[in-house]
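Researcher: Next sequence.
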Amino acid sequence: MFAVLHVDTCGDTLDQVSEVTSSHIKLLHPTFSPRGAIIRRKLGWPVKAFYDVLIFKTKKEFLTLHVYFVPLDQDIQKTVKAKETSNGSKVIPKPSPDKSLQMLENVFLTTDMDTHAVIQPDKLKLRDERINYFEVFIRNADCDFTLKLESSQKKNTQRDTVWTCTIRKGDYQNQTSVDEQGQHFVDVHRTALINRVRDTGIIRDKLMENGVLSSEAYDTVECQPTTQSQMREILKYVTSAGRRGKDILYEILKGERNLKSLISELKESGEKRSVSPSIHFL
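Model: Next structure:
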């Protein structure tokens, strides 16, 4: 018996009703206009909204995180995810704030690794017309740490904690590439990789795709007369790229079907080496 007339500049429509009580009418497919929020803002009234947190680990050599605070809008979130994944970033899933944030208020992101971390910008003013994010840079990250988001309104200098989360070492490090003694798989099995890896072409191609090899380095490797000398050159460039280069090579080796048995054999030998007892001669 009921319908809701919606008057708009684009035309008038009738909205279907799913439920009617003595004081409320519930719409079946509600649509909302941002004009109400704009009017409240112009009048100086607070406009609150919930935000999701999207955390991405970038491909940079040292630990660099992009921490986004985005509205509950699937299109905006898809845009952010597409942009980051196209640059090789990996998402670190974490719970979002369960408290609302007030638009145009200042928010601050801090960490308990203050002496080792650089966070930019120092503060953000939340806006709905742009994507809000912080960059967290930690040069020597090797342990768990906590991120904390605080808010501060103009009339109140005291900060309120809105959200906290723990970033664990396993979230940002590929643990399977490092043994219990902290040595990387590529370093431990360098000789075996040089002598036993034969298909260097696909490795060169994928290293170049991931930015580890430049076109000039690619040609230098290709000009080597034997697969052993090619692997030596590959390992030289990979090592110069730091931990990131070694991790990328390790993932390439694991992904090649004809190398699965070799990688499994080397991993087993590394595990046996790590648990073997130490013998001291006096």
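Model: The longest strand covers residues 63-71. The two ends are 97 Å apart (CA to CA).
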